Amino acid sequence: MYAPPPGLQSANVFVPNKRLREELRRQYERNVFELVNVLGMVAAEAAYAHGEPWLEDMLGYLRGNHAHFAEAINGADPRLKVLPTDSLYLAWMDCRGLGMDAVTLKGPRLARQGPEVRD
Fold first, then answer.
1. Cα–Cα distance between 41 and 17 in angstroms, integer?
2. Which residues of 56-95 are buried (b: 16+ CB within 10 A; e: fewer)?
3. What's the structural domain count of the chain?
4. Which residues form a coiled coil (predicted)?
5. Is position 31 within any domain?
6. From first to last of its 119 residues, what are the pLDDT tens digits of the chain?
7. Does residue 118 form part of some domain?
């Protein structure tokens, strides 16, 4: 999915699964205001035609940030492990080494710091 900044009001979605693609199309037809933002179309065309060098640089930068974060967390406490990820804006951590259940992890200390804790 390509989603430029909100002001461009443009997005592209690629859904290989036919059933999901049809459901998305049905929901889109029911819920989306179908005005085209010309600047968004031009930006998307420019990104596809000329954006690969920028994209490769950005991916390298984001992967470097993830590696730096993982190194810092993994080195700070051996009970924590940052997991490899395909996502560029999320970091998954294995906190089982802390010996705490999910309810305890969701407690006031982590709530103040803001991470999402899931079972």
1. 25
2. eeeeeeeeeebeeebeeeeeeeeebebeeeeeeeeeebeb
3. 1
4. none
5. yes
6. 555 556 777 777 899 999 999 999 898 888 876 777 888 888 889 989 999 999 999 999 999 999 999 999 999 999 999 999 887 778 889 989 999 888 888 776 555 555 555 55
7. no
Distance CA 61, CA 54 (A): 11
Instruction: Give the C-alpha separation, 56 to 83, whole Å.
Output: 22
- DSSP reduced 3-state for 32: coil
In the numeric block, the tokens 């933002």 are attached to 37
- Residue 53: burial class (beta carbons within 10 Å; 0-12, 13-18, 19+): exposed
Q: How many CB atoms lie within 10 A of CB 10?
A: 20
Range of the domain at 88: 18-110
